[in-house]
Design brief:
This protein is an all-beta fold. The protein is about 0% helix and about 45% strand. The chain contains no helices and ten strands. It has a four-stranded antiparallel β-sheet, with no helix packed on it. It is globular. The relative contact order is 0.27.
Length: about 110
């Protein structure tokens, strides 16, 4: 399987611990620069249809602003109630150097 990566922003556009909402192939994605890495997680909370990119990031987790569920940016697994289902996470690649480096995300896999 190969991933179809799509450029979503420049690395310099990502403020640490501040989610950025993008769309990749029609899929809402929250892109987050946290703990020196860049993560991509589905932007919709699995508990309620709410945008995760409007929440806060702490300790490599993103919190849903509505009910307080928190999801691990690496795995998508919820860290506590009320959410019980994980949200999808997506592979990220960085191409180039510095603030102009391209952040690429893949939401679909091709075989």
């Amino acid at each position: 399987m190969t991933a179809n990566f799509e450029r979503v922003c420049a690395l310099g556009e990502l403020e640490p611990d501040t989610p950025k909402r993008v769309e990749v192939g029609g899929v809402p994605v929250a892109v987050v620069r946290a703990e020196g890495e860049v993560y991509a997680i589905n932007d919709i909370c699995s508990h309620a249809h709410v945008s995760l990119s409007e929440g806060e990031v702490e300790d490599c987790s993103i919190e849903c602003w509505l009910h307080g569920s928190s999801f691990d940016l690496r795995t998508g697994k919820p860290n506590g109630l009320p959410a019980t289902k994980p949200v999808p996470v997506y592979p990220v690649k960085i191409e180039g150097d510095g603030a102009d480096a391209a952040v690429l995300v893949a939401v679909n896999q091709e075989s």
